[in-house]
């Protein structure tokens, strides 16, 4: 059985970066689906940090309907991530009511109706395909484990908002990530953080600080952003202050026990930090030397030219990342398809052999994918 795995669709993004709301990228994906025996949506299918669930669901409905039609007679498995954790939270809460729920384990295969009303609705839209839910991941093959990858935030050295949030929760609960040994440990730290953000977004759209736009803007400034000649004096002064203050802020967080964190947020270090953190998760969950397919970081791989040693966890796990289906200009270069963060990727797990990274939108242009350019085109037609 071959399995096509895609992650980080973020359907419902308020900045319209989610590409599968567009018919052209969706058609490319559906053609690939036809050649696979099974499809896995590996988390962050919906963007529930930006606003109410109903808004994201409305955006997701056409895609789920098309996917279900393309998967007639096949199975779709949905895994929740950190941005759509609300899809699985009702099941986790009900599980907590059991007198002896037992350990969470690496794989629970569930019927959508037993997980949440939202998950059941997604499954109904995907008919006639059969839909099941897996959490926190699933064994695609005896030697291939797939999970969204949000557990890696507990070990990340990059000071993202997610990393700082789980670190603060770690201090509150007295549960250092260095002691983790099972999925329950990661859930105890992450679930309260996700639940709070989901509650904030339940009835209204969130501000930039919570939906990630402010973080992206800060990273853009720290990495140079637009050319200095095109920025106002005020913007240049703000960037200079941010660049000067960032290492001091990171040092202060480390002294406060929030770290270890690094002030290096170069593209190379972002990749390596994510891989080190996922390798740590694989070791602590005792995944051994199997293939571990994950998303979350939006950087697919391994790609040609990558250092292969970076894609091995410390316990021997062979890491494979799905990339994303979102257009994020901050990580892209001017040349079409050049950046490793170019969207439209998935991982094909064949019946035997190594998982393969597929880059499906390499021939698409910025003009076809960029939200601002798409909006301008529509205004002119």
Describe the protein's architecture and organization.
- By secondary structure, this protein is of the alpha/beta class.
- It has one domain: Purple Acid Phosphatase, chain A, domain 2.
- Helices cover 39% and strands 13% of the residues.
- The chain has helices at residues 23-33, 53-70, 89-96, 117-125, 161-173, 183-201, 208-211, 213-222, 233-255, 267-284, 366-369, 371-380, and strands spanning 3-6, 38-42, 75-79, 107-110, 130-141, 144-147, 291-294, 318-321, 345-349, 356-359.
- Strands 1, 2, 3, 4, 5, 6, 7, 8, 9 and 10 form a ten-stranded mixed sheet that branches.
- A hairpin with a 2-residue loop joins strand 5 and strand 6 (144-147).
- The longest helix has 23 residues, at 233-255.
- The radius of gyration is 20 Å and the shape is globular.
């Amino acid at each position: 059985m071959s399995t096509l795995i895609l992650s980080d669709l973020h359907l419902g993004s308020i900045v319209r970066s989610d590409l599968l709301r567009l018919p052209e990228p969706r058609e490319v994906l559906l053609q690939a689906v036809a050649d696979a025996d099974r499809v896995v949506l590996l988390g962050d299918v919906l963007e529930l940090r930006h606003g109410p669930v109903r808004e994201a669901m409305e955006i997701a409905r056409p895609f789920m309907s098309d996917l279900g039609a393309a998967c007639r007679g096949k199975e779709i498995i949905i895994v929740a991530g950190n941005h759509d954790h609300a899809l699985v939270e009702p099941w986790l809460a009900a599980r907590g009511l059991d007198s002896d729920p037992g350990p969470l384990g690496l794989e629970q295969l569930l019927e959508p109706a037993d997980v949440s009303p939202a998950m059941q609705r997604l499954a109904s839209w995907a008919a006639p395909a059969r839909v099941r839910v897996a959490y926190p991941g699933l064994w695609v093959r005896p030697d291939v484990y797939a999970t969204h990858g949000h557990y890696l935030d507990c070990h990340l050295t990059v000071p993202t908002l997610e990393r700082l949030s789980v670190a603060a929760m770690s201090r509150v609960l007295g549960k250092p990530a260095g002691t983790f040994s099972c999925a329950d440990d990661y859930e105890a730290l992450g679930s309260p953080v996700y639940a709070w953000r989901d509650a904030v977004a339940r009835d209204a759209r969130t501000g930039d600080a919570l939906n990630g736009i402010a973080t992206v803007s800060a990273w853009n400034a720290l990495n140079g952003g637009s050319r200095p000649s095109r920025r106002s004096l005020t913007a240049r002064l703000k960037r200079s202050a941010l660049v000067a203050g960032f290492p001091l802020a990171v040092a202060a967080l480390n002294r406060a026990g929030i770290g270890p964190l690094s002030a290096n947020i170069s593209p190379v270090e972002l990749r390596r930090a994510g891989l080190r953190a996922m390798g740590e998760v694989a070791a602590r969950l005792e995944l051994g030397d199997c293939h571990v397919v994950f998303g979350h970081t939006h950087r697919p791989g391994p790609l040609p030219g990558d250092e292969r040693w970076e894609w091995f966890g410390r316990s021997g796990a062979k890491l494979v990342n799905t990339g994303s289906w979102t257009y994020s200009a901050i990580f892209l270069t001017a040349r079409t398809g050049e950046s490793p963060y170019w969207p439209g990727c998935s991982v094909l797990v064949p019946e035997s052999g190594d998982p393969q990274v597929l880059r499906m939108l390499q021939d698409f242009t910025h003009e076809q994918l960029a939200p601002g350019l798409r909006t301008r085109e529509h205004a002119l037609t």
